[in-house]
Amino acid sequence: MPTNSPLTVRGRLGIYTPATVALAIGAGLSMMAVQSPSRGSWATVAGLLGLVFSVVLCAYLVHAGRRAQRFEELVEESAAAQRAADAASLALHASEARLSSVLESVPEVVWSMELPTHRVTYVSPGVLAIHGLQPEAILANPALWFDCVHPDDRAMVRAALVGIGKHERTTTEYRVLRADGTERWVRDRAVLIHDESGAPERIDGIMSDATDEIGAVLALEQSERRYRLLVENASVCIKEIDVDGCILSMNPAGLKMLSVQNEGQVRHARFVDFIDEVDRSTVRRALDGALAGTSTAFEFGMQVRGDQRHYSSTVIPVRDDDGTIERLMGVTRDTTDQVQAEERKAALRHELDHRVKNTLGMVLALADQAMVRSPSVQTFHENFRGRLLALARNHETLAASNWRGVEVVDTLRTTFAPFDSSRFTLDGPDLRVPARVSGPLSLALHELTTNAAKYGALSEPDGRVSIHWKCEAEQLAIYWRESTRVPVEAPRRFGMGLTLVRGLIEHELGGSVHVDFRKKGLHAVLVLSTGETADPEPPEEVSDRSRLAARLPAAGA
Question: What is the rounded radius of gyration, in angstroms, for the C-alpha atoms of the chain?
Fold first, then answer.
């Protein structure tokens, strides 16, 4: 406070004005005593009293001046303290206003919870955004804070609050249920606050919405689980290869493909070392192409448990954050079945082409022979039609077996289908003849059956036919025995049917035919090779009927 303020002036006047008057009186008395003409005793006394009075009064004035100065100092200190208190109060109010503004603007929830009751004593406005509740509602209902926690996470949250006494601070991630029923993830950081004596007083915390972050992490984890499940259960080989061509990881299908028990047996092994040597250069080029940044597909062969297998593979580059290729991902599929199927198709196409040409040649030869030996058009029609039907039935049987051959018993049953099956006795082992054999054999059996129906056992009500077959050293022998009541006489020459049988077995299949006309029925033995030798290449197209026409004996032979 300034020294010339009204308060200081009034103080000084109050102290010094009476003293000044008294001092003036004492000084006057002393002067009167000195200047008195009589200079008697009274004057001496008066002078002494005035002097003493003046001295005492001066001493008082000095003391009073010191007290006045101290009073001024106290007043100044009090004023300074008041000014400081006022400034601190203004600063506090400003700070509180700024804090309140910050708490109202931030999305996080600032909260305080007293101990040991765990009752929420403060919560910031951010709770509206996260919980969908007003702060007043949570403060008015102590149980509402925990009611908002997801039921599956409440035990974890309570354990975290109890455990904070040991760790002083903790971070917990859990779910809360908003007032509208939606679910949010939060990250809650809490710290333990002590009182002046060091005892736990409260817990302060800040809660932030972590739904997007944790949701992304959970989605990534779920995606990784799905990827791992897919990889582990995939039927194809999925592997990782480093830039040096060594295997980093491989799924169970890949381990099975390589006939190993666990991943440790192939980890850090060079992938190309498992490949057939003839295909290694192809695999190396594919890996180099992938390391150059291009996805590459290739095929290769590999020996697995002694079997040759075929595979189709694709390798793609995998880059890091900087765009550098850090490894390769490979997917390999076993294509052995497909390759073999394609090979079978190619063989079947070749076989079909060959068989069609042979069949057409056979049809033309049958037509030529039937025309020569048929006395009428009706006879030609019957003979030719029956033989074509026999060929058609054999073709259906071959097609049903995918042209892999036909069982002998199936060929016989197909041939005898138009007749009463009880009149036939079949005896022989399970035996499959190749496709090249089944056609001529089926036609030969058809001719024997037709001959029996016209002239032999099947032309009588009680006639029977017995067929027995066996195979030794790739030689198939078929024994045909007819049983009749009417004695059979040997013809002077073979008819068209038996001539065709001999031509089919001997000339087409390189076998032999023995025919014996006994009185009780015809006996015939057909011997032919069943070896799986490849059929000769079909001849060039020529102007004559076919090679079969050239091999069949001339009519009347």
Answer: 61
